Amino acid sequence: MDRVPVKKLYRDCMFFAKFFGKQHGNEKVYMGQVRQQFKANMHEADKDKIKEQKEAAIRLLQDNCRSFRGL
């Protein structure tokens, strides 16, 4: 999980925020939440904290993908 670039993770999160937001009628809210979280952590320098945050984002994306597929 450590090898996922932050920019790719951000784009993936924004894609799913837009996708799920359109389904639920609150696209701007979801995208705003993703944007806010990335902005809040953009100056983080601790590699362990960065790794934790990336792993949490990846788990969230994986969980959303599973629920979307109905697995």
Q: What are the low-pLDDT stretches, counting only 5+ consecutive residues below 50?
A: none
Q: How many distinct folded domains?
A: 1
Number of helices: 3
Q: Decide which structural class fits the backbone.
A: mainly alpha
Radius of gyration: 13 Å
Q: Work out the number of β strands.
A: 0
Largest sheet: none
Mean pLDDT: 83
Quaternary:
single chain
Sheet-strand content, in percent, reads: under 5%
The separation of the N and C termini measures 22 Å
Name its key features.
71 residues; mainly alpha; 0% strand; globular
Quick description:
This protein is an all-alpha fold and 71 residues long. The chain has three helices and no strands. The chain has helices at 6-24, 27-40, 47-69.
Explain what you see:
It is a single chain. Helices cover 79% and strands 0% of the residues. The two termini are 22 Å apart. It has one domain. The protein is built from three helices and no strands. The chain has helices at residues 6-24, 27-40, 47-69. The protein is mostly helical. The mean pLDDT is 83. It is globular, with a radius of gyration of 13 Å.
List strands and helices in order, with pairings:
Elements: H1 6-24, H2 27-40, H3 47-69
